[in-house]
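The pair is quoted verbatim as follows:
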Amino acid sequence: MIEGPTSEVEGQGARDVPDVPIEQFVVFERPDVRVEDLTSFETIPPATIETVRRKGQFREWIESLAFTVLFVLIFTNYIAQATQVPTESMKPTIMVGDHFFLDKIAFPANYPAVVRPYLPHRSIRRGDIIAFKSPTDGNIPFVKRVIGMPGDTVEVRNKNLFINGDRLDEPYKIHVDSTVYSQDPWTPEELKVRDNYGPATVPANSYFVMGDNRDNSNDSRYWGFVTWDEVIGKPLFIYWSYESDPYLPGEKSIREWLYSYGSIAIHFFNRTRWFRIGTLVD
């Protein structure tokens, strides 16, 4: 007979265990299996473990890099982008060396043509500053102020701007040249339209834009209107401003890049316009 275990809890007594004949216990034997085989394991070489660990780290690094690149591409193309203006055309609102963010959410120029009809409408009002594709080089963004809305009649008379026959008050504009050029035949064409333009009516879904530095701006007076589909975004605020000279946008040589960044590193503190950091662009 097999004696069953007893309870350790006081007062409960021993548990009843049924009587089971010893003959009913069956022993299963596996002559082909040894106990030693069940308790011994093959040792993995340390070199193999290190190789697997390195492969795992490399894969994680590649995945992190791919995710970062994808995030940056999506963010800069569809949400916000850091940019700057290389000329004085928007002075004094935007100075050469002002670095600012563009709000690009839902502006049509950032999306394929098949997607544009489904985008939510972003309102553009007179006086807004917008970024848009250059009419001469689509890879270079222009930044100007919206002057004429669709249906407006725009006219410049002796440097004064008129919208639908009424003179527009423009506290943001400046003139660096006091000379007013007339429509005389011997006056160069670019100077004629600079000081006297129109009248011209803004087409539907289009805008008439001008730089705040009226005598030094390549804008709608020279190449026409900006369509809604060409708008990239609106400037938000200046995150860094550094005193620098106007420059022509385009690719720089390695030497030019080194000189530029070296100069910034040397003069960072004394040429940074600290008072402009955080300024809203409007």
Observations:
- The mean pLDDT is 83.
